[in-house]
Design goal:
With about 140 residues, the protein is of the alpha+beta class. It is about 20% helix and about 40% strand. The protein has one domain (about 1-140): Elongation Factor Tu (Ef-tu), domain 3 (Beta Barrel), CATH 2.40.30. The protein contains two helices and ten strands. A ten-stranded antiparallel beta sheet has the order 5-4-1-10-6-7-8-3-2-9.
């Protein structure tokens, strides 16, 4: 899973724009390896089309979570992301909304991107290799 956070979002009929995008996109994987770490957001976007089964070939599903005005509890919105464009700390994705309703604008937000079905990224593989070496060293000490 990849997570991108921003200070605010704006939307149009077919676009989601994150304003004040965090410099790092976080990644994590569940069991059995439980890998977690940061990746520069610019690097994540630059690698969007890399590989045979890239996000450019098979666009990922994502959930955008945001804070609503006042005490209202906002709904999460499920969408498909395509063609990300990063300019400074502003990221615009072409989107297809699958479930929910996006507001025209909102405050702090997070975008959870699902890489299901994709091969591990080079960063994940490197992380797994580092973790495996650490685990091997710990086992030898016992």
């Amino acid at each position: 899973m990849f997570v991108q956070s921003a200070h605010a979002l704006t939307t149009s009929a077919d676009a989601l724009t994150l304003h004040g995008l965090a410099h790092a996109t976080l990644f994590f994987a569940e069991r059995p390896h439980r890998v977690v770490g940061p990746l520069r957001s610019a690097t994540f976007i630059a690698q969007w089309g890399a590989g045979d089964n890239s996000f450019a070939v098979d666009p990922p599903n994502a959930v955008v979570s945001f804070l609503a005005a006042g005490d209202a509890v906002p709904e999460d919105v499920t969408l498909v992301l395509r063609d990300p464009q990063l300019r400074g700390d502003t990221l615009t994705d072409t989107i297809e909304v699958l479930d929910g309703t996006l507001p025209a604008q909102a405050g702090p937000c997070s975008l959870f991107i699902d890489p299901l079905g994709r091969p591990l990224s080079p960063v994940s593989v490197a992380g797994l290799q580092r973790r495996d070496r650490r685990d091997d060293r710990r086992e030898r000490r016992w």
